[in-house]
Structures are given as C-alpha cells and as structure tokens.
Specification:
It contains two helices and eight strands, in the order ββββββββαα. It is of the alpha+beta class. The strands form two sheets. It has a four-stranded antiparallel beta sheet. Strands 3-2-5-6 form a four-stranded antiparallel beta sheet, with no helix packed on it.
C-alpha cells in the first residue's frame, strides 16, 4: 500500500547496461541497438523517461539524466530495455522493477539485475535515483561544509595577519614599553570585526 500521497520529483540517471543479449543475430545486422525507458508502474499517463539509442552495443553507456516529476511516494519504477529495430517491433531485452523503499528517501546508486533478459543471459542496469529533497539536502550539506571551510580559512588569515602585526611591532618595541603591543591588539581586533 502507498504511504501518504506525497509527490516529489525524482532525479534519475540511467548510466548504462552490461551483458545485454544480441537481438540482431542475423548476418549483416550487427548487434543490439539498445535504449532504456523508465516509467511509474500502473501510471500510463505519467511522464516517461527514454534514453538515446546506442547502436551495435550489448554494453551501452547512455549517461542519461532526467527528472520524473510525477512520482508519488510509494510508487514502483519500471525500467525496460529494448533493441531498436526500424523494420519491425522493437525487441525486448529485459526489465527491472524498483519499489519506492529501495530508493526513497535516501536515494540509490548501483547495478540491478535485469529480469527476462534471455535464456542464460546475466544482464545488469546501472542506475542512480535521487528524490529531489534528498538531492537538495546533499547540496545543502556540501554548502554548509564549504562555509565551514571558508570560515576556518578566514580565521587562519586573521591569525596570520595578527602574527605578522605582532612581529612587525615587536621588532619596533626594542624595550620601549607596552604601547606598541596595545596598538597591535587594537589592529587585530579591527581585523576580526571586519
């Protein structure tokens, strides 16, 4: 059963496939010309993703990234791989279904075995699936880490500037008292406030 009807776009990358069967086995036809589709199970009117065709390759690399905006938490994604044929119906090369709990809410990246890939064929699909919210959280975490590094660098620069000021004034001290040291502290404080 579906969880609450919470819609959230998914970022899907279909990297490629390995070990597809050769559906173009007649002489002069080369090998399979595969492409992959992704859609939501039992949602015929929902958006559908389709990669480009990679000609003559049973280990295609698509590197296809797209967004599936009509995803609802609890939906199952269906990936299907076909061999593109110009003169007849495209040949089916395999499928995989991924239920929501395998990629939501934390995302998924890896290889999944294709079912119905052909007798004795062990084919896999390489995917990355990120809910938009998880993607944004990952981006925010990176931004926070970048700000923390920047703040640390600024503190180091202030400390280096303070050291340089103290060294410069220390060289001028020559035993003349506390006044130059007080001036250095004021300059360091002004640096930290800016």
């Amino acid at each position: 059963p579906k969880m609450a009807q919470q819609q959230e776009a998914l970022r899907i990358t279909i990297f490629g496939a390995v070990g597809l069967r050769n559906a173009d086995w007649l002489p002069g036809q080369g090998t399979s010309d595969p492409y992959c589709t992704c859609e939501i199970l039992d949602a015929p009117k929902a958006d559908k993703i389709r990669t480009k065709v990679v000609n003559n390759n049973t280990n295609p690399i698509w590197d296809h990234e797209a967004e599936l905006p009509s995803y609802t938490v609890g939906d199952t994604l269906v990936f299907r791989v076909y061999d593109k044929d110009d003169l007849k119906r495209d040949d089916f090369l395999g499928t995989v279904r991924l239920h929501s709990d395998s990629f939501y809410p934390s995302g998924f990246e890896g290889e999944v075995p294709l079912l119905e890939a052909g007798k004795g064929v062990s084919a896999h699909l390489k995917l990355k699936i990120w809910p938009s919210r998880a993607q944004r959280l990952a981006e925010l975490h990176c931004e926070e880490a970048a700000w923390a590094r920047l703040e640390q660098q600024e503190r180091c620069l202030v400390n280096l500037a303070a050291r340089d000021i103290f060294q410069e004034l220390g060289c001028r001290l020559n035993g003349s008292g506390r006044e130059p040291l007080h001036a250095a502290v004021v300059r360091v404080a002004a640096l930290e406030m800016s």
